[in-house]
Write a structure and sequence with these properties.
single chain, about 110 residues, mainly alpha, two-stranded antiparallel sheet, 5 helices, about 75% helix, disordered C terminus, transmembrane helix, membrane, transmembrane
Length: about 110
């Protein structure tokens, strides 16, 4: 949904976009697609937020980095930044789920003798 709102803003104010703004749009779009792919894979239970993907980094930590890249790239684009800031809601839900998963594993391990 966030991508659709960003696209609508871009099309409405296309004459204000220079090279840096278009670079921001492309980077934000690629980052958003990466986040969508990760969230879909988690929803389909093909990976979890705690699964290691790069060295010691898990899916949640990598998605946090991608989220920050998308946020900064989106803010660099002219026009309203509210659609870019709308990325905060899905990330907040992911952060909350990550905390729930951590709490669930801690309580499960403390139940064992």
């Amino acid at each position: 949904m966030v991508g659709v709102f960003q696209l609508a803003d871009i099309l409405r104010e296309i004459d204000q976009y220079g090279a840096l703004a278009w670079l921001g749009v492309v980077v934000a779009a690629v980052a958003e697609l990466a986040l969508i792919a990760a969230y879909v894979a988690c929803a389909l239970e093909r990976m979890t937020l705690r699964q290691r993907v790069v060295g010691q980094l898990d899916v949640f930590q990598v998605s946090a980095g991608v989220f920050l890249i998308a946020l900064v790239a989106g803010v660099l684009s002219p026009g309203r930044n509210t659609t870019t800031l709308a990325l905060l809601l899905p990330f907040a839900i992911t952060y909350w789920l990550h905390g729930l998963e951590a709490a669930g594993t801690e309580s499960a391990s403390s139940d064992e003798p």
